[in-house]
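Now for our target.
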Amino acid sequence: MIDGVRRFHEQDVEVKKAYYSREMGNGRFWYNSNFDLYEGVVNWRDTIACDIASWLPPPDQLPEVCRDIIIEYSNQVADLGNVLFELLSESLGLPSNHFKDMRCTEGLFLMGHYYPACPQPEAAIGTSSHADADFLTVILQDQIGGLQENQWVDVPPVPGALVMNVAISCRTNLGAGEAADVAYGPIKELLSEENPPIYRERTTNEYLAYYFSKGLDGTSGLEHFKLKA
């Protein structure tokens, strides 16, 4: 998969232009560069992305240089995600199909980042600190590394290994995929007088609208939905 992402980004600019868009989530495969170019410190990276689960792109609409591996990798990650959701459900004392029944396994969004050399590194950063707006994030690193998690602990790359993040949305049970208009909130089976809800219910669309409006500012989008004490 890493080689496929690299092959796309290292093509001639004129070839990549056919996929260029600054509209995230436009329902197809897209490519852009420095998505926050006019918003202070630049995230100096090129990105390809595709909403795999809801679009199911015809193969001929994916770039030839990474078409086969995108399809294969996405299928494998979807299978992995189903297993992880089952394990997560069981670890919370819930039936293994709990998250699946809530339609939390329906979303799959693929992104491939590429970090070219920057002529002014003091004015840019690869990726700003942020909390992912999804349930689970599966990260495949190359040998260069640079990933940091939680309190900025280095996560060195291990050949053949994947990094799994339980993202901020999962901690409060936010759904994804085609259930975008369904209201999600704390899991009722886990609530009690001693463990009351901290955040209110909201839809995926509502959460994402706020998440993208605030940008990658290093803060969690959850605070906006926190119940008043």
The radius of gyration is 18 Å. Residues 171-178 have pLDDT under 50 and may be disordered.
